[in-house]
């Protein structure tokens, strides 16, 4: 157990990294999704779930906002067989 409040940790994280902790977590999830989309033939819904997204539509929206392409298009153009 750490004696650090959630708000203090969040503030310190942003001071050190320059981005918010939620934004960082989302970025890491999308990086993991990229890896799955490149290396596994998985449905988008399973990739979303495996990366911590409960809603595949929300996952697709976030993925497109960060990567500039939908997960499906990314998968089709980057899949390593």
Structure description:
The structure is a single chain. The chain has five helices and no strands. It has helices at 6-17, 21-39, 44-50, 56-67, 71-78. Helix 2 (21-39) packs across helix 5 (71-78). Helices cover 72% and strands 0% of the residues. The termini are far apart. The model has no long low-confidence stretch (mean pLDDT 92). The longest helix has 19 residues, at 21-39. By secondary structure, the protein is mainly alpha-helical.
Overall, the morphology is elongated
Q: SS-based structural class?
A: mainly alpha
Helix run count: 5
Radius of gyration: 15 Å
Strand content: under 5%
Please describe the biggest sheet, giving its number of strands, its sense, and whether it closes into a barrel.
none
- Strand-and-helix sequence, N→C? HHHHH
Q: Indicate the mean pLDDT.
A: 92
Summarize the amount of helix as a percent range. over 70%
The N- and C-terminal alpha carbons lie at a distance of: 44 Å
Note poorly predicted spans.
none
Beta-strand segment tally: 0
């Amino acid at each position: 157990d750490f004696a650090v409040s959630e708000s203090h940790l969040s503030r310190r994280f942003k001071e050190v990294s320059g981005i918010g902790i939620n934004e960082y977590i989302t970025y890491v999830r999308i990086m993991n999704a990229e890896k799955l989309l490149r290396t596994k033939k998985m449905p988008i819904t399973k990739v979303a779930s495996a990366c911590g997204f409960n809603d595949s539509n929300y996952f697709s929206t976030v993925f497109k906002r960060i990567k500039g392409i939908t997960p499906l298009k990314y998968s089709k153009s980057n899949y390593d067989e």
